Amino acid sequence: MIEINGKTDLLSLDISELEEYLAGLGEPKYRAKQIFTWLHKGASIDEMSNLSKKLRDRISETAIVNLPTIEAKLISKLDGTVKYLFGLSDGNVIESVFMRYKHGNTICISSEVGCPMGCRFCASTIGGLVRRLLPSELLGQVIAAEKDMGERISNIVMMGIGEPLDNYDNVIKFLRLVGDPNGLNIGARHISLSTCGLVDKIDELAKLDLQITLSISLHAADDETRSSIMPVNNKWKIAELLDSCRRYYAVTGRRISFEYTLIAGKNDSPEYARRLSDTLRHGLYQRSQPFPIHVNLIPVNEVAETGFKRSSVDSVKRFADILAKNGINATVRRKLGSDINASCGQLRRASLDEKLKKESVENSVDIS
Ligand code: SAH
pTM for this one? Predict the structure, then answer.
């Protein structure tokens, strides 16, 4: 069992682990489901009104509810998208974004504090990986946002800060916890996981045969370009990545979606669109057996530190048209919350910059 400052991390436990924890307090098994349901509604231990005061005290002495705190909340005037800066128990901060879609409320959650992957266009990886999130911290983002909004969240995308497959065990545990009918009951079909392409972990994930949607951050169609913006490509080349996608599809039967960020003058010319069509078709279609491909085109969000510029509306359209002509199903990602910089990583960076400025002022010696 995970402990935080010597106390059991209740939100990281599944029902059988909660039973075990409660057995240690001399409590019957049936209490586990009651407590699990309370926890996943965002209740504090004291709010668990069907438990005796004595039991609540025993739990408070030995365990904690590791929910994040809301450090900042930005609400888009354009579309109601809400961005949270959440504080963790050790003072680190992460971001989550709540979005309203026709098919239900969706939350984009972070999987790590920082990120080790080093993609050149991405704000989350500047400063590297600080640490991986616990199952309670993955789940806590959904619970805290649902509680704050007072609305049910029905879909989750793991596209926030961090690389979910670099935090594999905790992410798998989270998927089990969040799908439990005694709690949030968000099934795998309502969850998307985005990865920069850790081939060994994609193969491990395939074995679990989950019904989640896998998104692959491809962003380039040839190894030279991809390696220049995504260091992970030095470990696994595009062909190896696409092979793992084929294996994943063969087991799960789930359509895979490919993310392609359009960067002006880098990967957005018609030549690159043709290259992307060819790479996907050659890498994925076998013996002319079609493979259900979906490409998400995302004009790059400009991050001051990276210097990359967004593609023009015309280049995006031209790119999408060429894919369509080549029989590749593509959509351009609708941008929500553009007035609050809703894409992940930037708010955390801004808050770190603020903190650094504050600390350097506090640490500066007054020589006047
Ligand atoms: N590490 C995972 C998930 C987090 S990033 C991954 O790589 O997939 C979620 C998506 O946003 C990825 O497709 C990522 O490449 C993309 N992304 C990161 N920075 C971006 C930026 N500045 N503009 C547009 N997309 C970006």
Answer: 0.93
